[in-house]
Amino acid sequence: MKKKQTKRILKIIFIMASISSLIFVPWILLRILLTPLPNTVQEQLNDAIGYGLDGIIVYVDQAEKPPQFYAAGWKDRKNKIPANPKALFRIASISKLYIAVSVAKLVNDKQLSLNKTLADYLPELVGRIENADKITLRMMVQHRSGIPNYTDSPGFWENDYSKNTNESLDLVLDTPADFTPDKKYRYSNTNYLLIGEILDNTLGYSHHQFIKKEILMPLGLNHTYSLLSEVNLDDVMSGYAVNYDPDLKPNDFISPAGSMVATAQDVGIFLRALNDGSLLNDNEQAIYSSIYVYEHTGLLPGYSSIAKYHKDIDAVVIQFVNTSGGYSWNVSEKVYKRIVKVLRNTKEDRT
Fold first, then answer.
1. Do the beta carbons of residue 67 and residue 268 sit within 8 Å?
2. What is the dihedral of CA 233, 301, 241, 61, to 10 degrees?
């Protein structure tokens, strides 16, 4: 009897705690949680526009089905141009997957070593970046270097430091390390800016060219670019921030940490190949698995993106949203999870 009473009390406490926690959940997120799951992906995208997103693109590559393209909202809000599922998009940190693949390939070819240090590759940074002689290439790829993240520096976006890698790097030179190398994980775009420099020096030419030759061309990715300057801006989805009217599309970001532009389909084809082993040979795949992840998100002013492979339904799902700020990222994540649930339900209905 006493045991049942204890269980009942615990249940009441849990319910009360759950209700009280909802008080602190922003209304827009609560609204999403309380909205019944729709039957189709397109319905979910249409709902997403009602949650304050300007435009959304989704690409689904699911086994035994042809690729599916979805869009809702605006590609260009000012000119009332509807979202186009095949528009180019600034994919931000999803770019890091392509950089990590390049590292794996060059390590396999013995052109790079994961155990060599930043001091070995960029000796001019000794004394400018703390622990340069202890930070290995592996640590930089895995965000375990302790090098501060330059995009966190005050005034980074306001002063357009994103348009010049030297100015970006200057923001963290001669500053204390965030932690002792390899003691923690902390995401830092500086790692990938430096890896880009290492790749260029090792190759003797731009890593952009290497990515095109070794990744894009073999996969037939004709709508993926290393830099915004390589494309016609009219083909790129506009980007917006909450409570800020101007289009953020022209605001360039040239660092290897997040400079690439692509269609959702191209990102999906790349992600499928990365996950199913058709992009890398066995040795390269083993190296890659030891250093980096198989999915990624991306954030830039005006843009957010999610690229993941879901093994349980054998589906690659890419989502692009052209809104940033406020609760837009939280909304984007929740919308993405609901889309995957819709796909799971659809798969269950077919079996």
1. yes
2. 70
Tell me whether strands 261-262 and 224-225 are parallel, antiparallel or unpaired.
Answer: antiparallel
Contacts (Cβ under 8 Å, ≥6 apart) of 276: none
Contact indicator for 301, 324 with CB cutoff of 8 Å: yes
Amino acid at 137: L
Question: What residues form DSSP beta bridges with 318?
Answer: 59, 307
The residues that bridge with 320 in the sheet, in sequence order, are: 57, 305
List, for residues 70-117, the tens digit of each pLDDT value.
999 999 999 999 999 999 999 999 999 999 999 999 999 999 999 999
Q: With residue 320 as reference, give the H or E element that holds it.
A: strand 315-321
Decide if 252 contacts 162 (C-beta within 8 A): yes
Query: Considering the entire predicted model, what is its pTM?
Result: 0.91
User: How many angstroms separate the CA atoms of 90 and 304, rounded?
Assistant: 8
CA distance 322 to 307: 15
Both tokens assigned to 93: 């940190």
CA 157 to chain centroid, in Å, comes to 18
Number of H helices, E strands in the chain: 13, 11
What are the C-alpha distances in Å from 88 to residues 46, 169, 211, 233, 239?
A: 20, 28, 18, 9, 12
- The confidence band for 27, taking pLDDT boundaries of 50, 70 and 90, is confident
